[in-house]
Design brief:
- By secondary structure, the protein is an alpha/beta fold.
- It has 2 domains: about 1-40, no CATH class; about 95-335, P-loop containing nucleotide triphosphate hydrolases (Rossmann fold, 3-Layer(aba) Sandwich).
- It contains 13 helices and 6 strands.
- A 6-stranded parallel beta sheet has the order 3-2-4-5-1-6.
- The chain starts with a helix and ends with a strand.
- InterPro entries: DNA_helicase_pif1-like_DEAD, P-loop_NTPase, PIF1_helicase.
- It is an enzyme of class 5 (isomerase).
- It catalyses: ATP + H2O = ADP + phosphate + H(+).
- This is ATP-dependent DNA helicase.
Length: about 350
């Protein structure tokens, strides 16, 4: 019986002695691989195809040094540090930390304002002109411009409360364009380091010219709920001068992931009484795309809430993450395709 089963999937029955010791899932994989092999061989898909294009006249001079993994890691660390040093030059007013880098500080101040200040609708007319110019340059539609101005007008208001914002919409509605426009505005102001972009995966982070939130916030899945002093210092230097975080692909975040991000920022910024440590957060993407890698839709921010039955640390983190997500009260939905 076993011989016939193996023969049906193109596996030599004489080799069964080496396969019967495999687990059930591995046996299934072997059988599936044999079945696919039987399909592609007759039609020639498994045969190597010679190069069709003539590349003899093309000279590609790529000099890749032969280095160890530690040497590559050291070079990447140095390049990241040089980028951070370049950002610090854009904001020389930040005080230096013990590591020689600079971090934002907020000094209590008292301002005497007149009645007109309390009823004015614009923070600064000159700033509004700059916003309009940047918006026109990038060709924002009405919905995109609304999202852009919410962020930029918030940035020029010294008394503004924490911004917790969500920019939603289907694909090709211009969420990345809004991010690029906000970046252009801050760059024009000479403060490009005020905004950083992060994402759950390296690929999605590369699309927004950012990093993974694990690296940016020092989140290590193997060290549950803890952060070392060394990593804490590195993350503080990394977030020096940062006031806005643009988190793309929010659909891939689980409730527990959102809690981890918030709790880490609370430790980093030393503000445990406010979500995300008071950092202004901008979430983007629509929830019809990829769900969380672990837990699927049941663990997603839009999934069912199991808070009343949270009897272990994992479900408690999910309940708190869900509660934090419900505090995202500034929402702009992009509906017009670009």
């Amino acid at each position: 019986m076993i011989n016939n089963d193996f023969a049906d999937f193109g596996i030599d029955p004489d080799a069964k002695s080496s396969l019967v010791h495999l687990g059930r899932k591995q046996k299934i994989r072997e059988q599936q691989a044999a079945a696919i092999h039987q399909l592609v061989v007759p039609i020639g898909w498994s045969t190597a195809v010679p190069d069709i294009a003539d590349l003899s006249g093309i000279h590609v001079d790529v000099d890749i040094a032969d280095r160890t993994w530690s040497a590559w890691k050291e070079e990447i660390t140095q390049m990241r540090q040089s980028m951070l040093d370049g950002q610090q030059k854009d904001n020389p007013d930040l005080p230096e930390t013990r590591s020689g880098k600079k971090q934002a500080s907020y000094v209590d101040q008292v301002e005497v304002v007149c009645r007109s200040h309390l009823v004015c609708t614009l923070h600064d007319k000159s700033e509004d002109v700059v916003m309009s110019d940047v918006s026109s340059e990038y060709g924002l539609n009405t919905e995109q411009d609304r999202a852009f101005r919410i962020v930029t007008q918030h940035s020029v208001n010294p008394l503004a409360e924490q911004l917790r914002m969500y920019i939603g919409g289907m694909g090709s509605t211009g969420k990345t364009r809004v991010l690029n426009t906000i970046n252009a505005y801050f760059t024009l102001q000479g403060k490009s380091n005020r905004l950083i972009a992060v994402a759950p995966t390296g690929t999605s982070a590369a699309l927004v010219k950012g990093s993974t939130y694990h690296f940016t916030f020092g989140i290590n899945e193997t060290q549950r709920g803890t952060i070392s002093k060394k990593v804490l210092a590195e993350v503080k230097d990394r977030l020096a001068g940062v006031e806005y975080v643009f988190l793309d692909e929010v659909s891939m975040l689980s409730c527990a992931d959102l809690y981890k991000i918030s709790s880490h920022l609370e430790v980093i910024l030393n503000k445990s009484h406010v979500p995300f440590g008071g950092m202004n957060m901008i979430f983007a993407r629509d929830f019809t795309q990829l769900p969380p890698a672990i837990g699927g839709k049941a663990a997603s921010l839009y999934g069912p809430c199991d808070g009343m039955y949270a009897t272990n640390p994992r479900t408690q983190e999910m309940a708190m993450g869900k509660a934090i997500w419900h505090q995202i009260t500034t929402v702009v939905i992009l509906r017009e395709n670009i």
